[in-house]
Sequence to fold (399 residues):
Amino acid sequence: MDERQATRSIGHFCCVGGRGDSLPARARAVRAGLCECTAGRSLVGIFGALWRRANDCRLHGKQETVPITQNYVGTVEPIAQVSIRPRIDGVIVAQPVEEGQMVKQGDLLFHLDDASIQASIAKDQAAIAKDQANLDQANSDLQRDQTLQGHGDTTAQQVEQQQVTVKVAEATLASDKAQLQSDQVQLGYATITAPISGRVGAISVSQGALVRASDTAALMTITEMAPVRISFDVPERDLAAFRKAQAGSTPPKVTAIDANTNKAIATGTLVFIDSGIDTSSGTVTLKGQFDNADEALWPGAYVQVEAEVGSYDNATTVPTSAVQLNGDQSFVFLMQPNSTVTKRTVTVARTLGQTAVIASGVSPGDHVVIEGQLRLVEGSRVKETVGTAVGGPAAGAAG
Fold:
């Protein structure tokens, strides 16, 4: 394989060899840590990523921070969902929205027949005008009686009676003004607008229908689609880890995963930990919030949730395929400078998907075999070759 082919290749080490030259063995090896390589040699990064640079033989290891995640099942919930009901009786004369339509706060949803309310308002306004005239007349009479009383031409009793008349006129005017305000409020109820922005659900009525304030069924629902939250229950034993993570400077990340494709749908942050534990199930409810600008998360849907509960700082990792079991011990085949392999007992702190976090036994920069371990024994000789792709045929592998 020439230098250009090696520079383009994307794969893991493939180790081939045998004990002496009589027992051939095939294996893939990766280097724990992050490395750069030349044509004909490739060193695998701490997460199995390959970096290639022609005419550069510098090798260096690197440790990474590995997130600790837990998987749960969650339900998508809208932050706000409103049921629309009438507050007065009336016939629907206008319905400018349709089912499934996106509306903004304040948009018109329904308009009820308000002719009778308009008539009541006109009547109130007329009564107010009449009351104002009566009050003006009563005040004028009171002023005249007070003047006559000063000249001794009327009695104090007549003045007091006129003062009572003024107060009655004032109270009547105030009452009619209050009635006008009440009717104006009723008029406002005839126009039903969206209290929040969101998606219109099923509409249970149509134009021309008579609706009543006592109706129990909603005219429609409006569901806020963005942002949304995902609610999921975690065992009581995980609560302490989540509380510690939430107390950190960065909110814990929560990822929604499609159950069918196993691909991430959206990423959000943990925003809520319930204040109590459900004694019947031994779980506590948590919620993550997602922007959901693309509406990938649909309210009511079940999704898988991957939540971060911490991290391994400066962790050394290898692919899980490199770790073998021997009874209750774990080990890897470590490639030595003389191109032979040796068994190395390791302590696996945690397995995260295809990555094993190694607490001891392997250091960044070590080469470990990730395929074909069943054909290897202590001292087997191997040879590194570059694969064209993860899981693909190895380039330059010996038979």
